[in-house]
Structures are given as structure tokens and as C-alpha cells.
Amino acid sequence: VMKPGEAEVVPNLAIDPFDKVFLGDPYAYHDMIREAGPVVWLDSVGAFAMARYEEVKDSLRDHETFCSSRGVGTLDFAKETPFRPPSLLLEADPPLHDRTRSMMNRIVSLKALKELRPRWQAKAEELVDRLVERRRFDAVKDLSEIFPMMIFPDTIGLRDDGREHLLDYATIVFNAFGPDNDVLREGNEGKEAAIEWVAEACKRDNLKEGGWGMAVFEAADRGECTHEEAERLVRSFLSAGVDTTVNGIGHMVLALAGHPEEYQKLRSNPSLVRRAFEESLRWDSTVQTFFRTTTKRVEVGGAEIPEGQKVLLFLAAANRDPLHWDEPDAFRIERNTSGHVGFGFGIHQCLGQMVARLEGELIGTAIAERVASIRLTGAPVRRLNNTLHAIDSVPVEVEPA
Ligand code: QZP
Predict the structure, then answer these.
(1) Helix or strand (DSSP H, E) at 114
(2) How far is CA 176 from CA 72, 74, 247, in A?
(3) pTM of the full predicted structure?
(4) Are 281 and 315 in contact (CB under 8 A)?
(5) Dihedral angle, C-alpha 206, 217, 349, 124, nearest 10 °
(6) How many whole angstroms from 199 Cα to the centroid of ligand 1?
């Protein structure tokens, strides 16, 4: 009996994309997977995988064949129970997904962000002012882990006590999309209390008036969803809104520190800041991978994928596919990054992308206006996670402008 993926047209790769060496520096492995073919089989995960731009994007576009409701991690929700009730956005298909998504889109609106912008900008400037005065600081511990926490929990209207659990919770959520391996066990150790804290924090009684959390419950009052659903939708904010932007900002500073000539371009033309943030997402994508599950037999690039199979999509590898990008390994802030899949693609494309972009823009601008140059003073330290390319420390010295 042949296992799925044993057909000759599908290369069988002996690579574990969730082992520590791969997660620490995935890019050479991404090259191997892309070069092996449009679809490969990975014995280590028992899943098909795609790493080329075109196939990743086509799969994300075809949400009927490549569904999300059976989970976007290794676990097949049709066969096993996840560690928490499924997300009503990320782990849902239409029509449920479309109903919850349009509700949430009305809350995370352009208008809402326009109102928040001046407050967020003042916080970004205040934070960067303090850091420039110090000259030497850690761009993760003192900047990228701090800024989202200065603005996002208040925007949701979260209770004040226990907010430190948010990063721990995200670690658990993002590790859970991968296998039950050493990275998950070591990364999650001692963080279990975060699960209970988040469950409590999502309740109406614990949310402040005027925040996005309460806005979800007010939508429930209008009949747009049930109150039980509202709680779980607030949970989505807390799951997706912190660690992603922490690492997105961290990666942007790391990329700029490592490419002084690119930083000088930003200095001389601060209107490049949005491009710089986008390019850092393409070049070092925070969300590295996601799974889908096939709802029917499907052919991709001459390979046959049976129904009910997990398919691992390498977003970060698609973002460096030489079949699509010119000099993909080069970090160039003036490049046209449109079409990158760092925020995904299709109906599930990041709900918070405007939030992330605004945070990146405000920090990037505050730095560009105040800092003449950024120098790494030590080796950056990665934080291994089954889904996120994450960073724990980026020691820098800046020269004030
Ligand atoms: C995590 C949820 C990068 C995102 C895909 C991460 C993410 C999005 C949504 C949720 C969790 O809805 O819980």
C-alpha cells in the first residue's frame, strides 16, 4: 500500500521543518523545498508541502479545496480535538467565516485606526526618544516587545492586571500549529497560566467600555453573533495581535541594522517607511507557515493530493521564490513588494494588517527622524517557535541624528 505522497511525481524530503536547526535559520531549507518541486511530501510531518510562490498563492486562493475548518496546524480537527475551541475566524470556513470576518472588519476599520493614530504616534515618539537618549538598548526587549503592549491592550480595552500573559499565550497558540515537539514543550513550559487568564480576559465583565473587545459584545447585542461567539472573537484579537507585531517590528529593526545602506535610504526619504516595513515582512516573514486540509482530491503541478490531507504552506519561502521575485534574498526597501504573502492571501488574509502596518510605520518613522545610524553590538538571539520566526534579542547602539 502506498502512503500519500509516495507517487513518483512527488519528491519525498527527509526534512523536519519543525526541528530546531530548520526553525533557527530556515532559508536554505526553503530553497531546497522550492527546488525539489511544486509539491513535496514530508515524512516528518506526514503532510504535503508547497514552498513556491505560485502554488502557495493558488492554494490560499482556493479555500474550498484547501480548507481551514479542520485546523491550520498539524492537527486534523476532523480526527482530533485542539487545545482550545477553534477560532471562529482562522479555523473556520464560509459561511461561518464570512459572517464573523465582516463583523470584525467593521470594528478594525480605517476610521477606527485614523482615530487611534495620534495617540499611537505620541507613544511611539515618546518610546524612541527615551531609547535614543540611552543610545544602547535591546531592539526587542526595550522596543518591539514594549510598543505593541503600550497600545494594543488599551485598544482592546483589556483589564490592567495580568497583561504580561499575552506574549506567553501567543507562544502557546503559535507553537500549537506545529507538532508536539521539543520546541513546543520547552517554549510553553511554565506559561500554562496564560490560557486561563486569556479565557477570563475575554469575558464582557472584564472588558472596558469603548474598546474593540466591548465593540464585539455590542455587535452581539445587535444580533450579529451570539455572546458565546463574541467571547471567542475577542480571543482572536489577543491571539493574533501581539506576538505578530512584536516580531514584525523586531525584524524591521534587525533588517535595517544589518543593511546600513538601506537605512540611509530611509533616512533621506522617510516616506519609504511603509515600503521598508513591507519589505522586512517579505524578507523575514514573521508568520512562516500555515497548514490547510484538502476537502477533495486535487492536482497541483502534476502531483495528486488525496482528500483529507494536510498541506503545509511555506509563506516565508514563497516570499523569496526566485521564480517570482528579483534577487529575492536581497533586502531592498525600494522594491515593489505587492503580492507578498506575509499577511496571507484570499479570504483569510490578515484581519489586523492595517494595525500591523500602522505600528510599523509609526516606529519606523520615529526612528528615521531621530537616528543617524544603527549598529548591532552583539549577535541577535532567535526565539524558536513552531510557526513564528521570532526574535528574543537584538542589541543595538544608535547614533542620534
Ligand atoms: C492566530 C485566532 C498570523 C495569524 C494567522 C495568527 C492568528 C490569527 C487568528 C487567530 C490566531 O483567531 O485565534
Answers:
(1) helix 110-134
(2) 10, 8, 18
(3) 0.97
(4) no
(5) -50
(6) 16
d(CA 137, CA 86) in angstroms, rounded, equals 39
Residue of the nearest CA to atom 8 in ligand 1? 240
**Which grid cell is 84?**
482550545
Going from the Cα of 174 to the center of ligand 1, the distance in angstroms, rounded, reads: 8
Any ligand 1 atom below 6 A from CB of 236: yes
Report how far residue 189's alpha carbon sits from residue 61's, in angstroms, rounded to the nearest whole number: 36
Estimate to the nearest angstrom the gap between the alpha carbon of 296 and the chain centroid.
Answer: 28
pLDDT confidence band for 3 (50 / 70 / 90): low
The answer to whether residues 278 and 325 touch, using CB atoms and an 8 Å cutoff, is no
Evaluate if residue 140 carries a pLDDT over 60. yes
pLDDT of residue 158: 98
Q: 5 CA to middle of ligand 1, Å?
A: 29
CB-CB contact of 137 with 145 (8 Å): no
Q: How far apart are CA 118 and CA 333, in angstroms?
A: 25
Residue 285 to residue 389: CA distance in whole angstroms: 7
Report the sign of the C-alpha dihedral through residues 184, 185, 191, 194, in that order.
positive
Which atom of ligand 1 is nearest to 72's Cα?
Answer: 5
Q: Kindly state the cell numbers that stand for 316.
A: 516565508
Atom of ligand 1 nearest to the CA of 348: 5
Residues of 184-221 as b/e, b for ≥16 C-beta within 10 angstroms? Answer: beebbeebeebbebbbebbebeebeeebbbbbbbebbe
Q: Compute the distance between CA of residue 291 and CA of residue 309 in angstroms, rounded to an integer.
A: 10
Atom of ligand 1 nearest to the CA of 89: 12
Report the C-alpha gap between 191 and 168 in whole angstroms. 6
Tens digits of residue pLDDT in 67-84: 999 999 999 999 999 999
- Tally of CB atoms within 10 A around 146: 17
Distance from residue 124's CA to the centre of ligand 1 (Å):
25
CA of 86 to the centre of ligand 1 (A): 10
**Is residue 299 exposed (0-12), middle (13-18) or buried (19+ Cβ within 10 Å)?**
exposed
